[in-house]
Design brief:
Order of helices and strands: HEEEEHH
Low-confidence stretches: none
Keywords: Glycoprotein, Membrane, Signal, Transmembrane, Transmembrane helix
Largest sheet: 4 strands, antiparallel
Protein name: PTTG protein
GO biological process, one term: protein import into nucleus
Organism: Edolisoma coerulescens
Shape: rod-shaped
Subcellular location: Membrane
Strand content: 5-15%
Helix content: 55-70%
Strand order of the largest sheet: 2-1-3-4
Number of helices: 3
Number of domains: 2
Distance between the termini: 122 Å
Length: 135
């Protein structure tokens, strides 16, 4: 029975894992198993100790919230990184992106214009050769 450790020490009370130590009232009571957190009329969160004497429920809740939030943020960042990596791989393996396509079209236009100029120059030279009979 946990009540026998009332007005003793936290360490003595918490040797039994079913006990909850209330530091403000120095009471040792049965941990309310049906509820996750002890009710305020039993003991305030900042005074409640369970498992170890140096951590109260309030600090435990805050620490677990911080750790849980950090894990969720890290998970979100990892998911974003993976999605970005897959997207960039798809662009590389799936063909050129828009800038590469634009550059390829511009190169093709220049090549066509160069061929047209060469053909024009060749026809002019051929005319000059015919005119002067050097053909």
């Amino acid at each position: 029975d946990c009540r026998q450790y009332t007005n003793r020490s936290c360490e003595e009370c918490l040797k039994n894992v079913t006990c909850l130590w209330c530091a403000s009232s120095k009471r040792c009571v049965e941990y309310p198993v049906r509820r996750i957190l002890p009710p305020a009329d039993l003991c305030e969160l900042r005074s409640a100790r369970w498992g170890v004497c140096w951590v109260n429920f309030e600090a435990l809740i805050i620490a677990m919230s911080v750790v849980g939030g950090t894990l969720l943020i890290m998970l979100g960042v990892c998911c974003c990184c993976c999605c970005c990596k897959k997207k960039s791989k798809r662009q590389v393996s799936g063909g050129p992106d828009k800038d590469d396509e634009r550059a390829a079209r511009e190169r093709e236009r220049r090549r066509v214009r160069q061929e047209e100029r060469r053909a024009e120059m060749k026809s002019r030279h051929d005319e000059i050769r015919r005119k002067y009979g050097t053909v």
